[in-house]
Specification:
Helix content: 10-25%
Number of domains: 1
Number of strands: 12
Radius of gyration: 21 Å
Shape: globular
Strand content: 35-45%
Structural class: alpha+beta
Largest sheet: 10 strands, mixed
């Protein structure tokens, strides 16, 4: 009976698996740094809305330079980043057109000149932690939760989901399968 309990625990342990999913996303105005991204949704035109938050430092990216939450709406031909941190007096509202792997971006980037025209650069995706759908909905849903690329609002909503929950996806196997595996082991 004792070996059955131990075997059951081992089987259950292996049936609930934590998977770390990473994604590469073009984030206008950002250099490679520890970032985490959660997918908020996709519209009918193929644009995905991401919540960008500080990530966990890793071996190659050992300093977290980003503070707060940004919202990114990215499609095959455009990207729109909104970030507002009143404590640091930083506001970013960057819109990019993407053609043939190059991004032409304009917007308010806190440089005192509006609109600021960024040099045209090759689209360089940044590896971010997470990349899957968020495991919980935003704490306070609002009309600003999902931005359209033409939006000029510099407001974004924060989420109450902790960073580690954003970067981990939990896969669970139905209870029926657990009992089937345990039943098979007992019969052996």
């Amino acid at each position: 009976m004792h070996s059955f309990s131990l075997l059951s625990l081992v089987v259950l342990h292996h049936l609930v698996i934590c998977v770390r999913a990473d994604a590469s996303i073009f984030i206008p105005g950002f250099d490679p740094q520890p970032l985490s991204a959660g997918e908020l949704g996709t519209d009918g035109q193929g644009r995905t809305t991401w919540e960008i938050v500080p990530g966990t430092p890793t071996g190659t990216l050992d300093e977290a330079a980003f503070v707060g939450t940004a919202t990114l709406v990215e499609g095959p031909n455009d990207a729109h980043l909104v970030y507002n941190n009143a404590q640091m007096s930083v506001t970013l509202d960057i819109q990019c057109g993407i053609t043939s792997g190059f991004a032409a971006c304009t917007g308010d980037a806190g440089y005192g000149v509006t609109p600021f025209i960024f040099p045209t650069n090759a689209v360089q995706p940044i590896l971010v932690q997470g990349g899957g759908p968020l495991t919980a909905s935003p704490a306070t849903p609002s009309s600003n939760s999902v931005l359209s690329p033409a939006s000029t609002s510099s407001t974004s909503s924060a989420s109450s989901v902790p960073n580690d929950a954003r970067s981990n996806i939990v896969v669970q196997i139905p209870l029926v399968m657990i009992f089937a595996v345990i039943g098979t082991v007992v019969l052996l």
